[in-house]
Structure formats: structure tokens, C-alpha cells
Design brief:
Blueprint (H helix, E strand, L loop, with lengths): L3 H13 L8 E11 L29 E10 L2 E8 L5 H19 L6 E4 L4 H4 L1 H9 L4 E3 L4
């Protein structure tokens, strides 16, 4: 839930970036998608009919499939999507930045650089090794701090 400080920070961010060339801004994030067959289904039945045969689910199987992905998008369409094995850690994130994001940016935006990148404030995005990597690549990538 957004509190008043969050709201003010986001309004300030919007006002400070009104005249930004958003066609040169890349947004990146990761997401886990999951499918599951074992969630509760809504069931409407008459009172006192819970255990009637047509109201009982006899088998239960997970069938759940989860996949984590990292992706980036810009004004003229999506960038790459990369599958993340397990929970993404800082070393894996730096590999993605170095091996996927940076080559993709350089391929689409030869000049002028740096290109602006926006990411949220999750721990993996703000840890020291990621900040160090971003500092080393400041000629190619400029971070726009998210409020």
C-alpha cells in the first residue's frame, strides 16, 4: 500500500521528468509466473450438502508450473526475455545485465549514449555489486532512480 510519502515521491518523480525523452528510457524487471491446478474453486451448494458425491474432489494434484523471467521494454517494443532459474540473486542479475541487457542496448542504441534505465528498488537491484557494475558502465547506462 502506498503511504503519503510514496505518493509525494511519485508525484515529484513525474514532475521532474515531464520533459524527458521517454523514447530513450528502458524499463526492466523480473517476474515469476505460476500456474496451479490446486487452488480452491468457488462452489455453490445447498446447506448441509458438503459431502455429497458431486461436491467432493477425490484427487488432488499440484500440476503447478512456475517460471521466473527477466525482461526489459522500451517505447518501440520489448527487449529480451530471459528465464531465471530459481530465485534471482545478485550474481545472476549482474550476469544478466552484462550478457543480455548491455548487448541489447548497444545493438538498438548505437549513439548517443548513455541510455536511461529504470528499475525498481528491490534488494537485488540496489546491492553493492550491482551498483559497482552500473558505475563501471556509466558511459552506456544512466540510472533513473525510481521513487
Amino acid at each position: 500500500m502506498l503511504n503519503e510519502d510514496h505518493r509525494v515521491a511519485r508525484v515529484n518523480f513525474a514532475q521532474q521528468n515531464l520533459n524527458r525523452n521517454w523514447s530513450r528510457v528502458i524499463f526492466l524487471d523480473e517476474k515469476t509466473f505460476s500456474s496451479s491446478q490446486d487452488s480452491k474453486l468457488p462452489l455453490w451448494r445447498l446447506n448441509n450438502t458438503r459431502y455429497e458425491p458431486n461436491h467432493v474432489l477425490y484427487t488432488q494434484r499440484s500440476g503447478r508450473i512456475s517460471v521466473g523471467v527477466f525482461g526489459w521494454i522500451l517505447s518501440n517494443g520489448p527487449g529480451e526475455l530471459v528465464q531465471i532459474g530459481g530465485r534471482m540473486n545478485r550474481a545472476q542479475y549482474v550476469r544478466i545485465l552484462n550478457d543480455i541487457l548491455l548487448p541489447g542496448i548497444l545493438d538498438r542504441y548505437a549513439h548517443p549514449r548513455p541510455i536511461t534505465v529504470v528499475q525498481d528498488n528491490s534488494r537485488v537491484h540496489t546491492c553493492r555489486i550491482v551498483r559497482t557494475w552500473l558505475e563501471a558502465h556509466r558511459d552506456e547506462i544512466e540510472m533513473l532512480p525510481w521513487p
